[in-house]
Amino acid sequence: MTELLNIPSNSFPSFKGRTAFITGGSSGIGLETVKLLTSLSCNVLVADLSPPPSSIPGPGVIHFHHTDVTSYSNLLAAFRSAHARFGTYPDIVFANAGIGEVGDLFSEVSDEEIEREPKHQVVGIDLVAVANTGQPGLAMYNAAKHGVVGLLRGLRYVAPKDKVAISLVAPAITTTPLLDTPEMKHEDRSKVMLKAGIPLNTPRRIAEVVVWLAARGQAANGQGVLVQGGECVDLEAGIAKNRKAWMGETHARLYKGGSGKNVFEELREEKL
Known about the structure:
About 40% of the residues lie in helices and about 10% in strands. It is α/β, with parallel strands linked by helices. The longest helix has 17 residues, at about 140-155. It starts with 18 loop residues before the first strand and ends with a helix.
């Protein structure tokens, strides 16, 4: 059985002398992570289209760089800006910027809209921008997030060679402006959801998980933390632990490179 992670709400180590790079750090989860890291003496470069509030206390220093995360040259300029401001490149990178799907996937569309080529901005920001940096349930949003999981699974084996730890946080429904609709702001919509028994995360809780992973250093490499209702579990660890159950013993051995008997011969026997 996959066990819940005990991630604290406080008692984090000092991040003095460290520098973080956060895309989309001016609101929601990104902003809460900025607040938490700066309270732990971490310097933070916020890469966003608009600056964060000026009222965030230190002791860490915040440096804002206007950034379009879909532009690789913008991201490079932001990294260089962090080096110019803090004298070092960031050692913590949180590719947080994201948007929800635009429109209703299953709504009726006009002939004119059918002829219009879709832009798929959600893939550009939620997936491509994440790769360039290092609404729930809708198909494009899920496809983008599955791509991010694929990046984690591909990089976790090669990143440690360069003393880099790769991990991800997968927040379920979280009370950010992504929940805004034309009819209702996310604060009011969250109340309706809670009343209906839907588990919600606060941006602060997600920030705590991000900082917890950053504090773990190399020990966090490969972790994929799902957060629902503030509870956390490492899904990647659970998937690996139960690989035989969902992959089958033969394929599990294939995945690990095989051992002893010819696994390809076993596969042929299984088909017979």
